[in-house]
Design a protein that fits this description.
single chain; 238 residues; mainly alpha; three-stranded antiparallel sheet; two-stranded antiparallel ribbon; 49% helix; elongated
Length: 238
């Protein structure tokens, strides 16, 4: 089966319940079905689609957890993003993928500080115009910045704002959810909660708080831990 499609179930399986199999073999077969469907799809596979491949008695969350448990030693995992399940390379391998010749689009894209600030403002305030973004960010958000974010597929033109000149208001996309491993926009961190936790005071920087909200700090911390681990191993060998 090609990975280019197959995010929906065109016809039901004749035997989803697998009642003739012992419990352990039945669970294993459901794991293989779910993993195969997710692997074959280029887009996140909706929960309803996976539910159509397994029996009614299958606890889907536990099934995915068991698959991920077996993937712990691998550089990828199954994550719930953009309303479905998808194989994702672990964040600490993103730089490796970007460095591979011919795979410049592999892994999550990198963003400049200003691009990240604009993207965060769109995520939390959408739909929002370029002029409003500049006011929110405290920087001029140029058309070039919005153009690059659009070319990466993380934002798209939304409805025109009811303002003089009817400027375009920008919104985030399903690709945005995939890049930041979010199931939906409801999974964005609560900025008020970050305030309560003192995140903004800790960094004394709105940009850093937004990094927290979108999980970029976690990615950097994971990368730093990997680098520290590599240095430790080098010290042992020395």
């Amino acid at each position: 089966m090609s990975r280019a499609g197959a995010a929906r179930l065109d016809r039901g399986l004749p035997d989803r319940d697998l009642a003739d199999l012992p419990e352990g073999m039945r669970w294993r077969e459901w794991m293989l079905r779910a993993e195969a469907a997710i692997f074959a799809s280029a887009k996140p596979v909706p929960r309803d689609t996976l539910a159509g491949l397994v029996g009614d008695a299958c606890r889907l969350d536990a099934l995915i957890a068991d698959i991920n448990d077996e993937l712990k030693a691998r550089p990828y995992e199954i994550a719930f993003v953009a309303g479905g399940y998808q194989f994702r390379t672990r964040p600490r391998h993103a730089e490796t993928l970007r460095a591979l010749a011919g795979t410049k689009d592999a892994g999550p894209p990198s963003f400049t500080r200003l691009e990240m600030l604009a993207l965060s403002a769109i995520a939390y305030q959408q739909p929002v115009t370029r002029a409003e973004l500049s006011r929110l960010a405290g920087h001029d958000i140029s058309r070039d910045i919005l153009g690059r974010l659009k070319s990466l597929g993380v934002i798209a033109p939304g409805p025109r704002a009811p303002q003089p000149g009817a400027p375009i208001a920008w919104v985030t996309t399903a690709r945005f959810l995939e890049v930041f491993a979010l199931g939906s926009l409801n999974d964005l961190a609560d900025l008020n909660a970050l305030d309560d936790a003192g995140a903004r005071e800790r960094h004394d920087d709105v940009d850093a708080a937004l990094d927290d909200a979108l999980g970029l700090v976690a990615i950097e911390e994971e990368r730093a831990e990997a680098e520290d681990s590599a240095l430790d191993e080098t010290d042992v060998e020395a």
